[in-house]
Amino acid sequence: MSPRDPSQQIPEPAAASRRGQLFIVSAPSGAGKSTLCQSLRERLTDLHYSVSYTTRPIREGEVDGVHYHFISEAEFRSGIREDRWAEWANVHNNLYGTASADLKRILDDGGDILLDIDVQGARQLVDHFPDSVTVFILPPSMEILKQRLAARATDHEETIALRLQNAETEITAKDEYRHIIVNDDVDEALAELLAIIERHREGRKRK
């Protein structure tokens, strides 16, 4: 029997591609969200992290492009006019936003993304990505939150008061999230967050 003509061979079906998953973590300022997200990234090194853009001044110890992309207000507002942001908000008199192109590139390649973002931004993102996994980090109490903000020594008393006022409003949105974690003990909170991420990632693999 003569060998089959390669041009007549039936190609094997391509493996179904898996679109990436968005994991959104929100919390009032001082609840420990950034610490938990950083620790999570150290554990799950294949989890992409969306670095937000902001007009607020860079703080001591922060690195441009790592903690945030620090840009001017003029550049940010240009992005609004050009519809470059998947979400954006004015928080504590500073602008914050997530670039649509950054998210689309990673998700289309099947990558999962962690978003450390405020309540306003989370709402916008869920409108665009309704299957997002949302997690809200709660402080044990408002008094402990106040102590944590004061201990950071990065804000004036007026700013701390504003953050506490905003925190009370943000906490009322907690029931909009699929998961809630009380950050009383950082190790326990991290274990809860890690379990949530791994459970949803494993569930998508089975589909």
Describe the structure.
The protein is α/β, with parallel strands linked by helices and 207 residues long. It has a single domain, classed as Rossmann fold (3-Layer(aba) Sandwich), CATH 3.40.50. The chain is 42% helix and 18% strand. It contains seven helices and nine strands; from the N terminus they run E-H-E-E-E-H-E-E-H-E-H-E-H-H-E-H. The chain has a five-stranded parallel β-sheet, with helices on both faces. It has a four-stranded mixed β-sheet with strand order 4-3-6-5. It is globular and about 50 Å long. Mean pLDDT is 87; it is low at 6-16.
Number of strands: 9
**Strand order of the biggest β-sheet:** 2-7-1-8-9
How many structural domains can be distinguished in the coordinates? 1
- C-alpha geometry: globular
Into which percentage range does the β-strand content fall?
Answer: 15-25%
Annotated CATH homologous superfamily: P-loop containing nucleotide triphosphate hydrolases
CATH class identity:
Alpha Beta
